[in-house]
Amino acid sequence: MTQHRAAIEAGDLERHVALDVEFHVLLREAAGNQLLAEMLDSIRSVVQLAIRTASLRMGPGHLALAEHEDIVAAIQAGDPSAAETHARHHIAGMRQTLHEQIDPDAAHSTAVLA
Ligand SMILES: [Zn+2]
How do the domains of the chain map onto residue ranges? Predict the structure, then answer.
């Protein structure tokens, strides 16, 4: 997380994307769900592209990092429902950004979780 902050502050997009993806990988490994880990691994390049696209649109990843910190804080506090809320918010924000990228008119539509 310290490395991630340093990369963002240095404006290093490549490293920000790599470390953001790494955070997601570590989190899913910590979750210990092998099947889920394999499923997510199969879409890893898509996630990477999504993070890159969102970062280019939104600028350096301060927001993403803050959201990662919220997720970790909730896990450390032993609060799984808060962790889930923060994680869903993180993914929904990304999704909204990507929708706006594709269709600027969708900027004011509400992100809906599947
Ligand atoms: Zn992330």
Answer: 2-108
